[in-house]
Amino acid sequence: MRDIPHYVNGERVSGTSGRFGDVYNPATGEVQAKLHMASAAEVTDAVAKAAEAQPAWGATNPQKRARVMMEFVRLLNRDMDKLAEVLSSEHGKTIPDAKGDLQRGLEVVEYCIAAPQMLKGEFTDSAGPGIDMYSMRQPLGVVASIMPFNFPAMMPLWHVGPALACGNAVVLKPSERDPTVPIMLAELFVEAGLPAGCFQVVNGDKEAVDALLDDEIIQGVSFVGSTPIAQYIYSRACANGKRAQCFGGAKNHMIVMPDADMDQAADALVGAGYGAAGERCMAVSVAVPVGEETADRLIDKLVPRIEKLRVAPYTAGDDVDMGPVVTREAKERILGLIQSGVDQGAELVVDNRDFKLQGYEDGFFVGPHLFDKVTPDMDIYKTEIFGPVLSTVRAGSYEEALGLAMDHEYGNGTAIFTRDGDTARDFASRVNIGMVGINVPIPVPLAYHTFGGWKKSVFGDLNQHGPDSFKFYTRTKTVTARWPSGLKEGGEFHFKQMD
Ligand code: NAD
Q1: Does 286 lie in the same domain as 165?
Q2: Disulfide check for 201: which of 7, 21, 42, 53 has CB 3.0–4.6 Å away?
């Protein structure tokens, strides 16, 4: 059986804790690898080694760091097929989806090639007589990144790219579910010229995470995962005096106005609701048609589209629409929530509770489900299901639809489908949600903008990628300099405005 170790100082290193986890192939349900689970002592060691490597990397000029990013981009494109195959085998998503996962991560590394521009700081000439003032952005030192399972390439690259470009060393803790691709990414960075030790990968669970949160060397923590864990990590990291940005769960609503192009809206909902088996933080899990007639038309358009979806393993070809969910526990949890929806009175319009795939009976497949007449008090509405389940909540008016999205505890993404510019503009301006789509179902901002939700979808105040990431991974230092030729007689004893 394959072994998945840690990656420390440029080498795959076996764990010493004696603890192992199972990594499955979700399509077959078989254990395909043993994962080495780090003890606190192993984490401390990896962090200390990162701290030894970081000063030289931080002192490397930003142009040279950017060249490492450029070379990494070339290498990732070279290995795209190999990486996608490994990613799909551990996560379960289709190969085109796995390539999208890699591509959206790659775009952030491409953005980081702008490091010399992003880090050049600010300068005020003659802030006072003979006085210049300048601000520079310096790396934090060693930072930690703790990852979810659903984007095993994109999420690490969103953090590691900017962190490294800013001159930090990173200790990454991948998800226990799909940890191989992050190690391969670290290897590619070293092949691209990154000094060994600047990108460490420690595998493990809560023990490894807590060791990172309590390590005095770690200066910044980036986390992505479920909301309760995001909140926990944010509190503990902050209590330990670290900078933290923690991104949590979602329940993204898509409002469909009566004037929307109903075919476009239905296509969008199917892609955004069932793509990657609903395991995306920007998945649309709630459709909100406005008016009974809109709802009926929408459901009529959705049902045949959903029934046509091809659910199969990633090995079955590029026309597979969705693969399995990530674990047996995830499958059972999703089926339990579907049952709760039925018990609480929602109408299960597309019912695939008996779904079985011949030859893959032990795989973690869940067929697509569609609920109608869901109400806000139901568990399927309140909970992030993170599976191929779309709930329809019928709203009587635009204000009611807007209120639903606004009152939900999560605020990651949302969308509105309408032909009316006035309504779209009002929605974008008033809704209390971080990322908004107008006739776009999954409004994931590109690398040069920033990504982040509001409300319980985030803890911390700087977003992922874009300009925010360069702020998160650096500290500002401001220098006020006066040279002798600018000095008047005597010293300065007062705190006064410069003249
Ligand atoms: P998760 O919270 O179960 O795990 C995330 C990480 O936290 C893993 O590395 C895990 O080892 C660690 N962890 C789990 N329990 C812990 C504990 N008690 N103490 C310390 N560490 C712990 O999340 P997941 O199931 O891997 O990912 C899915 C979630 O991630 C969904 O809620 C999804 O919405 C969210 N997500 C959010 C974004 C975003 O940007 N907002 C992006 C992707 C995924």
Answers
A1: no
A2: 7
